[in-house]
UniProtKB/TrEMBL annotation:
Keywords: Cell membrane, Membrane, Transmembrane, Transmembrane helix
Biased composition (Basic and acidic residues): 63-75, 86-97
Protein name from the UniProt record: ABC transporter permease
Bilayer topology term: Multi-pass membrane protein
Domain ABC3 transporter permease C-terminal: 274-394, 737-852
Residues forming coiled coils: none
Organism: Streptomyces alboniger
């Protein structure tokens, strides 16, 4: 009880000094809890949606279960309408109705604006069924009654300001279809961001499947008292189980959830990873706080020991203070996490993914995880200062001798730090020389962890040398004030090292990712310059959508064009000459002009020969693995087609990042073995301008696709810029998440300076008494802060560039061979760190400048 009272008194007495450490705990816990609440809310949203849209039992073609044919042919797998009547005969079936649905569509308004979600969500077209009434209500107008009418969901109508009577054009593999809006349907549950359009059944079959009397799936409704499981069993006994996939409502919802779970999990674990980095940075802040508080209470600790307090009681007293800090910070962090989740939901709604606060989900595990993490991390961080406090002898403390200096500990720290850094450096070197990416990735991960820990441990040793170098360059010009700032930064190397290390972690990751991103862009750009001979590239901008035949024919009619190249992909099962079958091999079928559009180096044969009749090529890695050579015959069983015997005419080098491992063949050969209605659409197309007519051809191609906003025509400059923008957007998101760790590190600098000012109160009073002005005092503290920030920046940027260079060597195994250091970014971050130091020193410097001289001198 005495320990608790002492801890409470000290905690409340230093509540101002604890505030910044508490903020670090709050931010870290808030990020963890916010991530958990946000991901749980998204799961709840999708669970409600999938449960509401799934029928009691759903019947679909067996071949649609694992097929990705829909995005390639543009026409989903379907079954004859006669299956509906058969399913309706099953025992316990109240009703059965056929449904049509396709995601391989684009919907545009009268201004030719794409109505599809901008967040990567799907555009879904289908027929309006009774099952849709489970999840939607028609709130305006009526359902479509013929080919001239279409219905749209309310969210899409609101977003694009659509009304009854407006024209919509649906672009599908079978062609374009124009109709007017006859109704608007509103979701009963939250729609996360899909755009939905409905036709009448006959129109949906004709425009989406290219055939009448067929459905993509069947919705079966159970009679009262009949379970979904029993109905599934009865439907399975009625239908041919080998031809159809039959699922209960729960099974359908679970399968739909799996489709989005990978995206949700990547987002969740990435955000938790950044929260972990923030926790790591916060540890340094907490260690510094308690180290300085212990140093400032040396005399008090001595008195406690003198009147009978044991080492355990002193240790326990400091740990109880840490426990109180952890509890208070974690409680506030849990609450802030819920607020952060709501903010993230609003942000996602702003970019097109609608999430409702009505679905806000706070599972009991979330506050428990937040509290446990916050408290455990805080107490562990305070353990070393607490242990150090317990070692103070009563007489040394009463003489104000402070914590005992331990030279052996400093030597041991230096040795351990050098060993860890050396071993980590060897790991990075081994990773850069690895022959396989998997092996190299493990070595890279180990090297990153060991060098990071090594730099943290050896930080105080490095501080003495690095700070002196920075001071010679920056501080000596400011005379005595600059020298005093240097001495203050060097006074406690351990504190300076820990403060700089907090900033080092975030900046090391920034530097590493900047190097990797710049190297990826530079390597890809170089590879494009070497390999791509086409003047123009045509690509879809909407996920899951290929280039329709109508759009491809429009491109073929463009003026000023030398040639147009079609490029399709298809899966096949391939049997090698030794009789072994490789399932699911991807083949690239293209026009013979593709050999000019993409310059591929061959290790055997000529690539142009691969576009001959019944010929193909493979990559050298596949050829080596299966012992193939030019002239070998391969049996190729095409998906949805016949089996062909193709001659291996060329083996291409896989030392490339463009089309690495691709197997080429002529589209004409593919057409011999795959029916026309199963022929995949173009994934991408290439074009070359007539000689000297590049600008005119570019404009002509764009004009040809003016009616198709889901496709983009790019010259090589556009393509490179698109690649650069994509990498840049990803890096900006990562930098934004790393910003939390950097904010916590800034708080660490503020806390270190604030406590340092308190620690040096008497010294500051004496300096002021002998003539140091307030302006000079504030400048001294700002300079000290800048030096500490630049020290952390130097370590972080140097370490991060080393990590990035090693990662690039692994990327070189995938063909990305150019290492590029983004010096403008590195220099900007380094200069920005100086401003971070200035900003962090504002409040401590202001408080120091307002200090009363006489009171400061009188302070013990």
């Amino acid at each position: 009880m005495t320990v608790l009272k002492t801890s409470m008194r000290n905690f409340l007495a230093h509540k101002g000094r604890m505030a910044l450490s508490a903020v670090a705990v709050v931010l870290s816990v808030a990020f963890v809890c916010g991530t958990l609440v946000f991901s749980d809310t998204m799961n709840t949203t999708f669970d409600k949606l999938f449960a509401a849209t799934s029928a009691d039992v759903t019947v679909s073609p067996k071949s649609a279960e694992d097929s990705d044919d829909a995005p390639r042919s543009g026409k989903p797998e379907s079954m004859p309408a006669s299956v509906v009547a058969e399913a309706r005969k099953a025992d316990g079936a109240k009703d059965a109705e056929g449904a049509v649905a396709s995601q391989s569509v684009t919907v545009v308004d009268s201004d030719n604006k794409n109505l599809g979600p901008s967040n990567g969500g799907p555009t879904i077209a289908g027929n309006w069924t009774r099952n849709d009434l489970r999840s939607m209500d028609i709130t305006t107008g009526h359902s479509p009654r013929g080919p001239t009418e279409v219905m749209i969901d309310a969210d899409t109508a609101d977003k694009h300001h659509l009304e009854i009577g407006d024209k919509l054009r649906t672009i599908a593999a079978t062609g374009d279809h124009t109709a007017r809006i006859s109704g608007i349907a509103t979701f009963k549950v939250t729609n996360p961001g899909a755009a939905i359009v409905y036709f009448d059944t006959a129109t949906a079959q004709r425009e989406l499947l290219g055939a009448t009397g067929r459905f993509t799936h069947i919705n079966v409704t159970a009679d009262a008292g009949v379970s979904d499981t029993a109905l599934k069993r009865n439907v399975a006994s009625t239908l041919d189980k080998a031809s159809y996939d039959i699922k209960t409502q729960k099974e359908t919802a679970d399968d739909n959830r799996k489709d989005v779970s990978s995206f949700l999990n990547v987002m969740k674990y990435a955000m938790l990873g950044f929260a972990g980095i923030a926790f790591l940075v916060g540890i340094f802040l907490i260690i510094n706080t308690f180290s300085m508080l212990v140093a400032q209470r040396t005399r008090e600790i001595g008195l406690m020991r003198a009147i009978g307090s044991s080492r355990k009681q002193v240790n326990r007293s400091v740990l109880v203070e840490a426990l109180l800090l952890g509890v208070v910070g974690s409680v506030l962090g849990v609450g802030a996490g819920v607020g952060l989740a709501v903010g993230l939901m609003k942000l996602m709604s702003g970019i097109g993914m609608k999430l409702s606060t009505g679905d806000l989900t706070v599972n009991w595990t979330t506050p428990v995880v937040g509290m446990v993490l916050g408290v455990v991390v805080t107490v562990l961080a305070a353990y070393l200062p607490a242990r150090r406090a317990a070692k103070v002898s009563p007489m040394a403390a009463l003489r104000d001798a402070g914590t005992p200096a331990d030279g052996r500990a400093s030597v041991l720290r230096a040795v351990i730090g050098l060993v860890l850094t050396g071993v980590g450096g060897l790991g990075l070197y081994a990773a850069s020389r690895a022959d396989e990416a998997k092996e190299g990735s493990l070595l890279l991960g180990g090297g990153v962890v060991l060098t990071l820990i090594g730099f943290v441990v050896i930080g105080p040793v490095l501080a003495s040398g690095v700070v002196r170098v920075i001071s010679v360059v920056l501080l000596r010009a400011f005379g005595p004030v600059g020298r005093m700032a240097e001495r203050n930064a060097l006074r406690n190397p351990r504190r300076t090292g820990a403060t700089g290390a907090a900033l080092m972690i975030g900046l090391a990751l920034v530097a590493c990712l900047s190097v990797v991103g710049s190297s990826m862009v530079a390597s890809a750009t170089d590879e494009l310059d070497k390999s791509v001979g086409a003047d123009f590239i045509v690509q879809p901008t909407q996920p899951g959508v290929a280039i329709t035949e109508k759009a491809a024919k429009a491109l073929e009619k463009a003026d000023h064009v030398g040639h147009i190249t079609h490029y399709k992909q298809i899966n096949a099962d391939m049997t090698t000459p030794d009789g072994k079958t490789v399932d699911g091999v991807g083949l690239s079928a293209a026009d013979p002009t593709y050999a000019k559009d993409l310059r591929r180096e061959t290790v055997a044969g000529e690539l142009s020969a691969a576009y001959g009749k019944n010929a193909m090529s493979t990559g050298d890695e596949f050829a080596k693995k299966h012992g193939l050579k030019v002239g070998d015959k391969l049996k190729v069983a095409f998906e949805h087609g016949r089996t062909a015997e193709l001659r291996l005419a060329a083996i291409t080098s896989d030392d490339s990042s463009v089309d690495k491992g691709a197997m080429y063949m002529n589209i004409a050969t593919l057409k011999e073995y795959v029916p026309a209605d199963r022929m995949p659409q173009n994934d991408i197309m290439f074009a070359t301008a007539a000689k000297g007519q590049e600008d005119a051809a570019y404009q002509s191609l764009k004009d040809a696709l003016a009616a198709y906003p889901q496709y983009k025509v790019m010259d090589q400059t556009d393509f490179k810029q698109t690649l650069k923008d994509q990498v840049g957007q990803l890096l900006n998101v990562v930098y934004g998440l790393l910003g939390l760790a950097i904010i916590v590190a800034i708080l660490g600098v503020v806390n270190t300076l604030a406590l340092s000012v308190v620690e040096r109160t008497r010294e500051i009073g004496l300096m002021r008494a002998i003539g140091l002005s307030r302006r000079q005092l504030r400048r001294m503290i700002r300079m000290e802060s800048v030096v500490i920030a630049l020290f952390g920046a130097l370590l972080g940027l140097g370490l991060g560039m080393g990590w990035g260079a090693t990662a690039q060597q692994l990327l070189a195994l995938e063909g990305l061979k150019i290492l590029e250091i983004p010096w403008p970014t590195i220099i900007a971050v380094f200069v920005g760190s100086a401003f971070v130091g200035l900003f962090a020193a504002l409040v401590p410097a202001f408080r120091a400048g307002r200090m009363n001289v006489l009171n400061a001198i009188a302070t013990e």
